[in-house]
């Protein structure tokens, strides 16, 4: 497959945004039959919710074609187009496996529609992450004569590097290399175990000998899953019993990490670097911010901009992030990536936690801010996402949610705003919504958040 990998996204006339989140996260099951994939998809109640993030990708490209496993709410789609001043054409193939590229390749009518839309266009391809089914789709489109730009996508030879870099073992090895380039940055002290049984024995030995609290990480975990805190012999026994009882597949036949719990099991700050390894080899910094973690250790959003990360930490995070990008490029990777760090509150040391070799929730904040705010927003504005805000009951459609956002917007000054990002979630049994708020400070953003939560709480 020969594609245009030297042209810049700015030359594109349309962005082709492919929301293959479910496909990427379960890509290790690439040889699984359709019925098994379909069962897994049906068992995931919030399937397809995160796919709405693809509506916000595209930067300065004013026309977007977005492929999602299920269609977004029409009112929500219309509102996003009006807010961003872009044209978005969203469509979904016949839902079978939920792997959007695979389903699209089998839906000939939908595939022909896509081909017709992309004829005579220069299309910048923006996927969530690299998969073998994405490669097959792009090869088919290229062989059909379409002009594609892969500035943020991977070459066929990159499949192994994606699997390696997006694993906990791969992340850890990159961090050890980064430490040699940036001595002020550290890999977390720990051990790589071949399997869960070995990790259980090693954890018991360490905790009995008086070890600091430990963090147990499955090599396959994603989205915060596959991470457990072991702060005592008793908690470790309960954790391993729970894992074995539930039979969670992310712990089966996979390496497991045991690492020291930075901060002694308390909640440390979690800075974050987002960047792009370009197809031409350039490393680009997109944004440096911080993960927002609830009191229960659950990821709930991102924040970027003024006073989120100190100037000293910004500089160190960028050095480490770009050094990691250089190493990823050497392994054949190209595309969006992020690094999650942990800041030790007792020493101010910056440690590497994990690498995501794909787009992330942070990419939505960054792209929204780049499209809506002045170019210096990172130094003058606070941009924060709230990705799992619970509401009391499920709603039939976005029509019922839209007035709450409209009411809040009417009370805002011109330098503040709120943008809904996840709305399919309002129909779930445990309903929630997601949005991004931008304001001159964290305090003002928090006040806006309180106002929207008060209005959402009145919905029934």
Strand and helix layout:
Layout: E1 14-18, H1 21-25, H2 34-43, E2 63-67, H3 74-84, E3 87-91, H4 100-106, H5 108-118, E4 122-127, H6 132-143, E5 147-149, H7 159-165, H8 168-181, E6 185-187, E7 190-193, H9 196-208, E8 214-218, E9 227-230, H10 233-246, E10 256-260, E11 271-277, E12 283-293, E13 299-305, H11 311-330, E14 335-343, E15 350-356, H12 361-372, H13 377-380, E16 382-390, H14 402-410, E17 417-422, E18 432-439, H15 442-457
Parallel strand pairs: 1-2, 1-4, 2-3, 4-5, 6-15
Antiparallel strand pairs: 7-10, 8-9, 8-10, 11-12, 11-14, 12-13, 13-16, 14-15, 16-18, 17-18
Helix pairs in contact: 4-6, 8-11, 9-10
Architecture overview:
- The protein is an alpha/beta fold.
- It folds into three domains: 145 residues, no CATH class; 72 residues, Dna Ligase, domain 1; 187 residues, ATP-grasp fold, B domain (D-amino Acid Aminotransferase, Chain A, domain 1), CATH 3.30.470.20.
- It has 15 helices and 18 strands.
- It has a nine-stranded mixed sheet, with helices on both faces. The chain has a five-stranded parallel sheet with strand order 3-2-1-4-5, covered by helices on one side.
- A hairpin with a 5-residue loop joins strand 12 and strand 13.
- The chain starts with 13 loop residues before the first strand and ends with a helix.
Give average pLDDT, whole number. 90
Percentage of residues in strands? 15-25%
Relevant CATH superfamily of the largest domain: ATP-grasp fold, B domain
Shape: globular
Main beta sheet: 9 strands, mixed
Q: Tally the beta strands.
A: 18
Report how far the terminal alpha carbons are from each other: 52 Å
Strand order of the largest sheet: 6-15-14-11-12-13-16-18-17
Low-confidence stretches: 1-8
CATH fold title of the largest domain: D-amino Acid Aminotransferase, Chain A, domain 1
What is the number of helices? Answer: 15
CATH class of the largest domain: Alpha Beta
Considering DSSP H and I runs of 4 or more, what fraction of the residues is helical?
A: 25-40%
Which radius of gyration do the C-alpha atoms yield? Answer: 22 Å
User: How many independent structural domains?
Assistant: 3
CATH arch. level architecture of the largest domain: 2-Layer Sandwich
The structure class reads alpha/beta
């Amino acid at each position: 497959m020969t594609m245009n990998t030297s042209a810049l996204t700015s030359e594109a006339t349309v962005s082709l945004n492919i929301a293959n989140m479910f496909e990427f996260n379960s890509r290790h099951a690439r040889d699984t039959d359709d019925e098994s994939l379909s069962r897994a998809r049906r068992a995931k109640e919030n399937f397809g919710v995160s796919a709405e993030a693809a509506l916000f990708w595209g930067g300065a490209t004013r026309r977007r074609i977005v492929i999602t496993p299920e269609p977004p709410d029409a009112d929500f789609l219309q509102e996003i187009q009006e807010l961003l001043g872009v044209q978005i054409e969203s469509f979904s193939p016949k839902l079978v496996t939920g792997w959007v590229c695979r389903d699209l390749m089998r839906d000939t009518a939908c595939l022909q529609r896509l081909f017709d839309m992309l004829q005579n266009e220069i299309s910048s391809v923006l996927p969530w992450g690299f998969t073998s089914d994405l490669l097959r789709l792009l090869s088919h489109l290229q062989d059909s004569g379409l002009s594609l730009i892969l500035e943020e996508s991977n070459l066929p030879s990159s499949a192994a590097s994606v699997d390696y870099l997006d694993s906990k073992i791969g992340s850890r090895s990159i961090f050890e290399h980064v430490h040699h380039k940036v001595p002020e940055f550290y890999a977390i002290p720990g051990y790589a175990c071949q399997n869960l049984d070995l990790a259980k024995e090693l954890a018991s030995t360490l905790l009995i000998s008086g070890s600091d609290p430990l963090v147990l990480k499955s090599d396959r975990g994603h989205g915060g899953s596959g991470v457990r805190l072991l702060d005592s012999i008793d908690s470790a026994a309960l954790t391993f019993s729970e894992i074995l009882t539930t039979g969670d597949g992310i712990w089966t036949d996979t390496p497991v990490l045991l690492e020291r719990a930075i901060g002694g099991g308390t909640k440390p700050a979690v800075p974050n670097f987002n960047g792009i390894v370009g197809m031409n080899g350039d490393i680009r910094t997109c944004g440096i911010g911080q993960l927002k973690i609830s009191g229960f250790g659950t990821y709930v959003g991102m924040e970027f901009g003024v006073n989120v990360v100190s100037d000293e930490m910004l500089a160190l995070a960028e050095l480490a992030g770009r050094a990691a990008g250089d190493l990823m490029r050497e392994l054949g990777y190209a595309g969006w990536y992020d690094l999650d760090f942990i800041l030790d509150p007792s020493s101010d040391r910056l440690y590497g936690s994990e690498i995501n070799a794909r787009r992330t929730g942070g990419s939505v904040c960054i792209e929204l801010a780049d499209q809506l705010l002045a170019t210096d927003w990172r130094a003058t504005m606070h941009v924060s996402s709230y990705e799992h805000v619970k509401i009391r009951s499920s709603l039939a459609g976005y029509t019922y949610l839209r007035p709450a956002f409209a009411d809040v917007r009417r009370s805002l000054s011109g330098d503040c705003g709120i943008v809904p990002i996840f709305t399919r979630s309002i129909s779930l049994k445990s309903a929630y919504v997601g949005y991004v708020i931008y304001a001159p400070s964290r305090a003002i953003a928090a006040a806006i958040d309180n106002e929207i939560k008060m209005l959402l709480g009145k919905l029934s």
